[in-house]
Write a structure and sequence with these properties.
CATH topology of the largest domain: Alpha-Beta Plaits
Number of strands: 5
Strand order of the largest sheet: 3-4-2-1-5
Order of helices and strands: HEEHEEHEHHHH
Number of domains: 2
Strand content: 15-25%
CATH architecture of the largest domain: 2-Layer Sandwich
CATH class of the largest domain: Alpha Beta
Radius of gyration: 25 Å
Distance between the termini: 88 Å
Largest sheet: 5 strands, mixed
Number of helices: 7
Length: about 190
C-alpha cells in the first residue's frame, strides 16, 4: 500500500475490447508522456495517444495478445496506479445476458484457452473439459449404480451432446451454392 500512497493516480474512463481510455487525476496529468513512452515499447500495444491538457491516455491494444489488466499493470510499472471502471462506458450486463448462453460460455472458454496457451506456450482446447467431466461423472454413476442407472446414461448423453454443440459453434459451416446449368441458346 505504501507504493500507492507515493504513486500517481488515474482512472479507467472508457473500456471497449482492444481499447482503454485512462484519465490521469489533476496533479498527475504531466505524467501522460511518460506513460505513453513506456506503453509504446510493449508488444501487443498498437497505438497510444495522449492529451496532457485533459490527462487522457488512449491505448489501443491487441486483445488476443494482452488484456486491459495487462495495460493497467504496465501503467503501474511506471508508478501510475489506475483504479477500475467507475462510470466507464462499458457494455451493460443485460446486453450480455440477453444473448445465446451457449455462445457466451463458448466465448469465455475460448478466451481462457487463449490466455492459458499464451502462458504455457502450448495449444490447449478447454472445450473438451466440460464434456469430459460429464462423461466421467456418467461413467462413475454407471459403475456405482449399476448398468440400470438412468442418471449415468443421461450424463453420458449430455456429455456427447455438449461436446458436439460446443465443437459445432466453434466452426464455420461451409455451404456450396447449387450447381446451375445454363440452357443452350436456341
Amino acid at each position: 500500500m505504501e507504493m500507492e500512497k507515493n504513486s500517481a493516480h488515474g482512472q479507467v474512463a472508457a473500456l471497449t475490447p482492444g481499447r482503454v481510455r485512462i484519465r490521469m487525476h489533476g496533479p498527475h496529468r504531466h505524467l501522460s508522456p511518460k506513460v505513453k513512452s513506456h506503453l509504446a515499447t510493449h508488444a501487443g500495444i498498437s497505438e497510444v495517444t495522449t492529451n496532457e491538457l485533459t490527462g487522457s491516455i488512449l491505448v489501443h491494444y491487441d486483445r488476443h495478445k494482452i488484456t486491459c489488466d495487462d495495460v493497467l499493470a504496465m501503467c503501474r510499472d511506471v508508478g501510475v496506479v489506475v483504479s477500475g471502471l467507475a462510470e466507464a462506458e462499458v457494455e451493460p450486463v443485460g446486453a450480455v445476458s440477453a444473448g445465446d448462453p451457449l455462445k457466451e460460455i463458448n466465448r469465455a472458454i475460448v478466451d481462457l484457452d487463449r490466455r492459458l496457451s499464451n502462458v504455457t506456450g502450448e495449444k490447449l482446447d478447454l472445450r473438451l473439459l466440460g464434456p469430459l467431466l460429464l462423461g466421467a461423472l456418467g461413467t462413475r454413476q454407471l459403475v456405482v449404480g449399476g448398468l440400470g442407472s438412468i442418471s449415468g446414461y443421461l450424463l453420458l448423453i449430455l456429455a456427447v451432446n455438449s461436446s458436439l454443440r460446443l465443437r459445432q459453434r466453434g466452426r464455420r459451416v461451409k455451404t456450396h451454392a447449387p450447381l446451375q446449368i445454363a440452357a443452350a441458346p436456341g
